Each structure stands twice: as C-alpha cells, then as structure tokens.
Amino acid sequence: MQQLNYYVLWKKDSYILGKYMNLYYKKIYSLLCQIKFPSESYSILDFWEYKSEEKIKKFLLHPNVSSIINFISWNQHSNDIYYYQRILEWFLAKFISQNYNYDFSVNSNKLNNNITLTPLAINPYSWNDSHPDHEDNILWSYWDFEVKDWISIINASLQILEVVDEGFHSEISLIIKEIVPLWTSETLNNSWSYKWCIGVLYVWLLTWVKDPEIFALESIIHEYSHTKLNLVMTFDGVIACDWKAQYYSAIRPDARPISWVFLWYHAFAPTLLIIIKAFISWFIKDKKSWEERIALYYFKLKFLQKTIKKHAHFSLIWKDINFELDYTVSEIDDLYSKIWVSKSTIMKVYVWQKNHFQEVNTKYNNLKY
Fold first, then answer.
1. What percent of the chain has pLDDT over 70?
2. N or C: fewer beta carbons within 10 Å in the chain?
3. Coil, strand or helix: which one is 148?
4. By the 8 A CB rule, do 268 and 294 touch?
5. 133-171 pLDDT, tens digit each
C-alpha cells in the first residue's frame, strides 16, 4: 500500500507538514525583509542573530506576526497599512529587546498542549476580509461562559482528540498557536479560519447541550483541516478549476467551484472520522442526537466524494492528498458500519439532503453534481 504522509492517522510524525511549515517560515521571513517601516530608523536584518534562528522562527510563525506581514505585503493600497506597520514594528522592537523571547501568551490562557485561548488575537484579515456570515461577529469574547468554562471545554476537546487520534492531536499542537473565543449560542455551531493567518482558529461554543466539548472538537478539526490545506495551497497549485462552473457541494446553500467543494470535502472527512471515533469510544453522551448528526454527515461526505471523483482534476501533490482522503473515507466506512443507525434516522437524513439539493438546484440552472 502507498505510504501515507499527509493524513497522520495515529502517527505522531508528519514529514509533509514539517516541510511546508519550513517553507512558510522562509516565505514570511522573505516578506518581512521587503517591508519598509514608517520610522526608517533601522534595517530589520541588522538585528537578526542567526544563532537565534529557532527563536526567530517561533516568533515569525506566530499568527499575530505572520498575518500582519502577509497583510502588509499583499495589501499595499489598504488604508490600514500604516497602522499595521507600526504594530509590527512594535512587536519586533519588543522581541529584540527581550532577547528574542517575546511571549504572546500574556493576558491569554494556556491550554493543555501549548495552545493559548485568547480574546486578544491580532489578525488584520478578520477586519478586512471577513466572511459575509461573520461580519457582525468579530468582537471576540467569552460571552455567556466564564473563562474557566471555555478552558475546561476546549481542554476536554483536545484530550478526547489525543485519546482517539494521537497523530491528529500532535499535528494540531505543531500548527495551531491560538484559539479565539467568538460567541456562544444555544443552537448555532459556527467557526472560521483565514488563509493568510495560519495558526489561529476561531470557535463558538454551544450552551444548553450535553456535549459542548464534542461540538467544539468538531469546530477545531474542521477549521484545522482548512488551515492545513491553506498551508499547502500557499506553495502548490490547487485543483484545475473552472471558476465559472458551479457544483453542488452538499454542504452550502449555494453552488461552488469544484476547488471549493474539495475544501469542504477535505474538512468533512477528518472531522467525521474523529467524531465517529469519539462516538464509538463512548465520549458522547447524547447518543440519539449524534446518531442523526453522524448519519447526515456521512451522507453528505459520500456525496462530496462522488462529486470530487467525477469532476476534479488533480496535480501530483493533490493526487496524493486525494488518495489519503479516500483512505480516510474507507476508515469512516468501516467505523460507520459498526454504528447501529435506525431506518427512521436514515430516512430522515435522506429527506433532509434531498430537500437541500432541490433548494440549491432551483437557484442554479446548470448545477453540476
């Protein structure tokens, strides 16, 4: 069987991700060297001590720093450039004055695996490139939960992940630096991440549910998967994609280009794998509710897989990733077969998905699926 390098699946090493993180560091470093600061009082290169490269790498890969460097480099005509140049200049001055040991966890809360929970994330893209669904909710806060509740729930999510898939847990510990509390809701489970802000996840928490840590785990895996793919796409071309073509994604209420369908497929597969493992391992209390949710997710995942196989055209690296996604789905097939799902649940999710397809199909005359 072909060796799996991309999806870790119980392994703690990830050669491919390590390679891409090194490339990302070099890219961020290169972009930094091209930035001209308002004060013009010094050259950044004059301050680097190459013996401290590991400290510099840790500093530059923190999302508070890398997102600002990306924003300044790719948004030269933004009205906010000067503001973020000054923030970056301040970060650099602090980093250098503190012997290359700037601590971003100040005023944050440490989680169990060196990730911090913080409402103080600095990410230009959250203000300047927010998804339309999120524009009204970009003031981070702990909201209806105490800080200790957020810490307890997120830690419980990460502990469950470490038990059911140690490899994925290890990956997240390597890439993710911050989790930002966004909102609390009684019904809506929402989350997001940003292509140019590698290393931070934005998470809601559900109140009045039996398994808030499972919903949080779902968000973490989903958004981490987007982050992982965005990291690779920074250096390697996406699927050959006709941006005018519209495809049914089985997830969204609107049609999407095939590469966006793949984005959802790529996030849905590992998320469902982890959730089913948690279900089988008795980490889930509300079995009936999650039985329906898992069945619906499984139905959507298989639809996404068929759409990708029929319409997507992959480059070499993407063929490897898609091969490993197929392997992940085969693992899901095996685990799903061990869950007893009632006929009434199967019919219910079938009707849900059929109605979803019909609703999207009526909006787009040439929908492909």
1. 86
2. N
3. helix
4. no
5. 555 544 455 666 788 888 999 999 999 999 999 999 999
Mean pLDDT of 229-247: 78
Q: What is the Cα–Cα distance from 17 to 173, expressed in whole angstroms?
A: 12
DSSP assigned state of 178: E
Cα–Cα distance between 191 and 201 in angstroms, integer? 8
Positive or negative: CA dihedral 58, 72, 236, 225: positive
Taking the C-alpha atoms of residue 23 and residue 285, their distance in angstroms, rounded to an integer, is 42
Which tokens hold the place of 29? 């470093």
Token pair for 165: 């898939």
pLDDT over 60 at 335, yes or no: yes
Half-sphere exposure of residue 92, counting CA atoms within 13 Å on the CB side?
23
Beta bridge partners of 184: 205
Distance, in Å, from the CA atom of 124 to the CA atom of 127, rounded to the nearest integer, reads 6
* 268 contacts 231 by C-beta, under 8 angstroms: no
Q: Are strands 178-185 and 116-117 parallel, antiparallel or unpaired?
A: parallel
Q: Give per-residue pLDDT as tens, 190-200.
A: 788 888 999 99
Helix (H, G, I), strand (E, B) or coil at 61: coil
Q: Tell me 46's DSSP state.
A: G
What is the pTM assigned to this prediction?
Answer: 0.91
CA-based nearest residue to 117, from 127, 101, 104, 129: 104
Both tokens assigned to 249: 């994604």
pLDDT bracket for residue 45 (50, 70, 90): low
Query: How many Å separate Cα 336 from the centre of its chain?
Result: 24
Q: How far apart are CA 104 and CA 120, in angstroms?
A: 10
pLDDT in tens, 66-102: 999 999 998 888 888 989 998 998 888 888 888 888 8
Q: Give the Cα separation of 159 and 27 in Å (integer).
A: 33
Q: How far is CA 52 from CA 30, 58, 59, in A?
A: 17, 10, 11
Burial of 47 (0-12, 13-18, 19+ CB in 10 A): middle
Cα–Cα nearest to 257, from 297, 215, 312: 312
Q: Tokens representing 141?
A: 């806060």
Strand order in the sheet with 191-192: 109-110, 116-117, 178-185, 200-206, 191-192
